[in-house]
Amino acid sequence: MKKVLAMILALVMIFALAACGQQAASAPAASNDAPASSGGSDAPAASSDKPLAGTYDITVWCPDAEVELRKAMIDEFNKTNEDGIVFNATVQNVGEGDAATQMITDVEAGADLYNFASDQFARLVQANALAKLGTKAAEVVKEGNSAAAVDAVTIGGEMYAYPLTDNGFFMYYDKSVISEDAVGSMDKIIEACEAAQKYLAFDVGNGWYLSAYFFGAGCVSKWSTDADGHWNVNDDFNSDKGLIAMKGLNKIQASPFHLSSSSAAEFDKGAAVVVTGLWDAGTAKEILGDNLGAAPLPSFTVDGTDYALKPFMGYKFIGVKTQTDAVKAAALHKLAQYLTSEEAQLKRFEAVTWAPVNLNAAASDAVKANPVIAADMLQQQNCTAQGQVNDGWWTLAAALGATAKETDDVDTYKAALQTYVDGLEKLKSLREGLLFVGAWNGWNNADEADTYILTGDGDVKSLTFEVPQSDYMGGRIVNIGSWENGMGAAQVKTGADLIQAPDPDSNPDNNIVFLAPGTYTVSIDTASGEISIVAG
Amino acid sequence: MNETIEKRSMGLKASRTLSNTIIYIILIVMSVIWLFPFICIVLQSFRIESTWNVNYVVPKQWGWDNYKALWTSDFKTWYLNTFIIALIVAVIQTVIVLCMSYTLSRFRFKLRNGLMRFMLILGMFPGMLTMIILYRVLKDLGMTQSNAVPGLILVYIASSGMGYYVSKGFFDTIPKSLDEAARVDGATRAQVLNKIILPLAKPIVIYTILTAFMGPWGDFVFARYVSFGTSSGMNVAVGMWNWLTPDMINQRYTMFCAGGVIVAIPVAILFMCLQKYYVEGVTGGAVKG
Amino acid sequence: MKRYSDLEFLKLSKGQKFTYKLVSFFASIPRAIGRFFLGIWNFIKKLGTTIGGEFADIYTTFKNGDWKTRSSFLVMGLGSIARGQVLRGLLFLLFEAVFIFYMITTGGYWISMLPSLGKVGPHEEYNEILDSYTTVYGDNSFKILLYGVLTIFFIAAFIYTWRLNVKQNKIAQEYEKAGRKLKSGADDLRSLVDEQFYKTLLALPLLGILIFTVMPIVFMILVAFTNYDGTHDGFNNALFSWAGWANFKTMLSWEGGGNVYSATFGEVLTWTLIWAFFATFTNYFLGMFVAMMINKKGIRLKKAWRTILVLTIAIPQFISLLYVSKMFAKNGIINGLLLNWGWIDQAIDFWGSTAHNALLPRVMVIVINIWIGIPYLMLIATGILMNIPADLYESSRIDGANAWQQYTKITLPYMLFITGPYLLTSFTSNMNNFNVIFLLTGGNPINAAASSAAGSVGYTDLLITWLFKITTGAGAQYYMASVIGILVFVVVAVISLVVYNVLPSIKNEEDFQ
């Protein structure tokens, strides 16, 4: 009988939950209003000469090593900036490698300002987790940085972040084991290691590191992303040059003293050489002390020819999260500019030995005098800009290293490289984009040649193609890699007289069935979902 | 005649001694394997000559540095968070589980079988994915990031009703005649539960408290999702997991070991003290399914 | 197939009985399917008559009702208040007020948006004076889906309560006519600790399960039919919308040849089943074996042995497993010691991080799972073995049985009989054993052949860890994770169904006790 009591209890709870949603419903409306202040701002001063003045509560993410420094720098900014901006910042330790995953969990609750590595750039832009740089801010970045760095923060002609430091790797070695003249040659290094019974740590099981062999042998893997976030790659690993790289990878892994690791702690466990990046400078120095040497990656020798290893070089950036309040956004951009300025980069170099990327800062004498940074800078002259590598690629590349370890058989290498290319094609087939699949192109929803992809700027994408005479002249628009049937005959608004009328019974897949062969232009407005067809 | 019996028993004795020796050897080897990782972790927590993962067991220099470093890091906050969660969850979850299992064991009502079947089916869905939605619900309630502790408590206890099987099995073994006798004497159902059943159910109550208390110490996935990017809302598992990520492991590895020891000691001691009840719970649960 | 009578069946040997049951189970599948659909038909028929009955009852209640009853059709609880059941009436009234208020203020909005999951997406604006870009947000698909579902729950609850209210009035009216006394509010409350006590006990736990388990699962199932992912997060970058069965097609179809999801799913499922099989049975038999060793007569320090072994239960897994995974690293303690002792001359790559080696890491996770799992089984087996009547062994020894025969004829059947259901649950929970895999290998080494499916699958990945990787991975394809989640449910349900029908001890459990 007294179900009622329990019912009420249950419903009050559901109601409480549901009531929370109410605020959200009205939130969009609120954010349309003048974005005067937010985040507990102390009524920003209305004076027109200092439009940014005010106090802002913000969250900042940066890696463990930089937390204290970052706090100090923000305090410094609060004191020195001329706009009257005061940041009340909560600085949290979130590593650069983890930032994108954490941001995408919930962009709304993520940090207002955060560090991230360049390989996550495209992902963050796609997730709308980075605020675009304004025209003036973009000018400042262009002036202060190399063209490669500027290129790395640009997608589709727009800039989204501030270069902070580089993110590449080079070679640390133990001077007491590896002599100066051996440093340039992988063969000599392996020899020296074997003679001294010491390890050579180079993580060639990892795509990021092992690709240095391929680029060294002259291969290309150029990654690009267009304004819509669609990526493309120009890659020739499956070639004779690729075979050279495979042989080189086999040679190093054949040594019993090779170690697939990229941690400077290996020096403590019998390694004489560790290939890793600047983040390990402290650990390496602590273990090796005065015996620490640093140099660009050596050359490897295959069939009597030397090839200098040419690693991927990425960057670490500071980004500002997308904001709803233009004033706060502008203030945050000021802070980001300050944190990546010449002085700040030099300060960071002194405190945590991060290499500056600002052109002036990098040219300073103090920076050049540091042997580790010097090696890093030298390596920068022989490197491959990383670009927006698709996540699936790392796995494909790692498999190449594994194959090179298992065998020295060239035919197996060829097969492995073929598998690699096939995998790359599969990856392409899973890209975002619209494709016309039909009877005349074999219903291929993973069009490798990209010939049936609908293209266009803005919301309207279109494609012109020829329909040959056949028994069935039907097809539909799908997202690449899928078979969805929500973009077909039923959505055709213009040119319906050219096709059979939609009929769920005889045409359950909602195909656009042309009445006559010929050339057609099909376009779809992705915003409204309407399709128009024009003959000729 | 007597002689042959003696011989046979001597033979038996000899083979028994042999088999016992083999068993002892196996048990000693097993004990070494079981203890080795824990001994290593304790030893490494006292190593001060380096902070990264090394390939030897006994430290070259001993000291309390790692424990001191824990004290100055956010570890205290994480530890306190976890302890509060574990304590509150242990109490409320026990109440809920007992309510649920007692009811399903003792009452026969219209929807009982349907309810049990429904929960069996619910249990077959992997809980992993629901964390996205639970996160959103908690976020709307303002219980994420720095306020993750109440959020985690809420989620742990809210779904605890699903884990009624073990204690229901135990209640099934308490004879119903006890209830009926008390009911004849005029006791209400509530009185029967308080005065008669609960005292008899002490082992299962302790088992439930123990497992409920131990659970939150190990939750990593959901706790990380809820407290993301905010150190003050993390529990020990999330915070210490971060120490083993590539960019921190070389600086924090020995601190991880020290933290592991600090976390493991109270939980392990509690467990050892209440082991007897745990065994009863596990055995009962397995037998009843 | 030949059907045996009960008597014939009893004469069969154990193996034959099992085979017979298995075969007859599969032979009965067509009939079971038939029964299933018949059941659904019957259910629909029954539902139809029930609903018809309800409407008829509502109608007659209204027709025969006095003013108190009739007014309650519109204003819930009015009749109860008029008849003196004030508490009950006020609760009804309060609920109706809350419902109407909610539906007018927000509920209507959520329901109306549910078919489209939002119309206005976010867009960007540029402020020239400040030189900064801002995002102006529109609808929130996630919230629409979430609160839409909740609102439907709420409406269902309202309809149920309204019906309850009508029924109450009918009963109360009959009571009044017969001159019987109606229950007062105090009576109602009292009954909640006595004959209605179960409602009091279940209210809170079930409420929690409803909101924090049922609702998320419903939501998860719905997500599988949308395109919700990292680039359509429903609010911040783009709205998501309904996608129909497209995701299931992507996951399961072989159409187009190069489809990667179906192949990857098959591969991961196979390893998940192999893992679950080994993880369950290695622990089971080794745990039993250890229990028998420790319990053997003449073995001393029983308690000490047990205490050492249960350490792996007592210490949180994130410490023990993470530490063990580092111990077995290529430059970890184990390799260090083996090298120092000269047992090996090259570090063993236990986790296969470099070599293209799936076997060793797979064996390793199973072996380390033994380290974690034996103690549980030892505890369980100890309890059960002690219950085997000692005279069974005594009499068998007199009959000349040796230890092995005693084991296969007495101990094992007894154990299997009692722990049958436990084996099943442990098999299914091993299928979803996230901790061991995630903390030890993280699913690695990576499976290059499957790399183009979302979430970079590894050779030791189970379905559950793959699901996790997809959720937190690059594209965050929540819809694919949902599809996998649903498929995991299907697999677990099918296995449970088969085993329940074949296993002897489950049906006989009551007899046994």
CATH architecture descriptor text of chain B: Orthogonal Bundle
Helix content bin of chain C: over 70%
CATH fold naming of the largest domain in chain C: MetI-like fold
H/E series of chain B, N to C?
Answer: HHHHHHHHHHHHHH
Number of DSSP-assigned strands of chain B:
0
Model description:
The complex is a heterotrimer of chains A (536), B (289) and C (513). Chain A is built from 17 helices and 23 strands. The N and C termini of chain A lie far apart (74 Å). By secondary structure, chain A is of the alpha/beta class. Chain B has one domain: MetI-like fold. Chain B is built from 14 helices and no strands. In chain B, helix 1 (2-45) crosses helix 13 (249-273). Chain B is flat and about 75 Å long. Chain C folds into 3 domains: 1-63, no CATH class; 65-244, no CATH class; 264-512, MetI-like fold (Orthogonal Bundle). Chain C has helices at residues 6-11, 14-27, 29-64, 67-74, 78-82, 86-113, 141-178, 185-191, 197-223, 246-252, 260-295, 302-309, 311-314, 317-327, 333-340, 359-387, 390-398, 403-431, 434-440, 463-472, 478-502, 504-507, 509-512, and strands at residues 123-127, 132-136. Chain C has a two-stranded antiparallel ribbon with strand order 1-2. Chains in contact: A-B, A-C, B-C. Chains A and C meet through helix 1, helix 3, helix 5, helix 11 and helix 16 of A and helix 6, strand 1, strand 2, helix 7 and helix 8 of C.
List keywords for this structure.
heterotrimer; A: 536 residues; alpha/beta; D-Maltodextrin-Binding Protein, domain 2; Immunoglobulin-like; 10-stranded mixed β-sheet; B: 289 residues; 75% helix
